[in-house]
Amino acid sequence: MKLFLDTASAKEIRTMWELGILDGVTTNPSLVAKEGRRFDDVLREICAIGVPSVSAEVVATETDGMVAEGRRLRAIHPSIYVKVPMTPAGLRATKILAGEGTRVNVTLVFSANQALLAAKVGAAYVSPFIGRLDDQSEVGIDLIRDIVTIYRNYRFSTEVLVASVRHPVHVLEAAQIGADIATMPYAVMEKLVQHPLTEIGLARFLKDWEKVPKG
What we know:
Blueprint: E1 2-6, H1 10-19, E2 24-26, H2 29-35, H3 39-49, E3 54-57, H4 63-74, E4 80-85, H5 88-99, E5 104-109, H6 112-120, E6 125-128, H7 130-135, H8 140-154, E7 159-162, H9 168-177, E8 181-184, H10 186-193, H11 196-209
Parallel strand pairs: 1-2, 1-8, 2-3, 3-4, 4-5, 5-6, 6-7, 7-8
Helix pairs in contact: 1-3, 4-5, 6-8, 8-9
């Protein structure tokens, strides 16, 4: 499973990229706004790090506007994937952009039927939001299971990008089901590396090493 960072912070991206575990980045208008800089400048800095997949979201709500924004975004860097919302206008825009060779990430997906439609119009990624479903007393990971099953049944090439990941268990469950990608905040990715027994074990080894005669 590929691991993406859900951020617009170049510092966070560089840290995980240097660890060798990062496969991509997802951004959205809220994350970019936190950086306090021009959208295009933020995207260029992220792409310059070398990450092969960077999702950048359109803000238009009508098809023509989405298509125009998508074309402009894809021209910034070859690593750019264009994020389009799961709406009728978004589906039309996805079909047009995908037909031109643009890789589209259909976002704000909350049902398996929506994911099916996104795949049918040529989306490269579909982004179901499991944390937000959990917030509504639904079991978000069940949606991932349904989408993975449907895509396998019909051999869709669209990749399942699990979004709104709140904790490491979400990542584990997504991997067990066979999702293609999980995108998460920096704090969650940090926790994937950590375990208290690892820290305790390392401290014990180092303490014992101090007892070994040197020289």
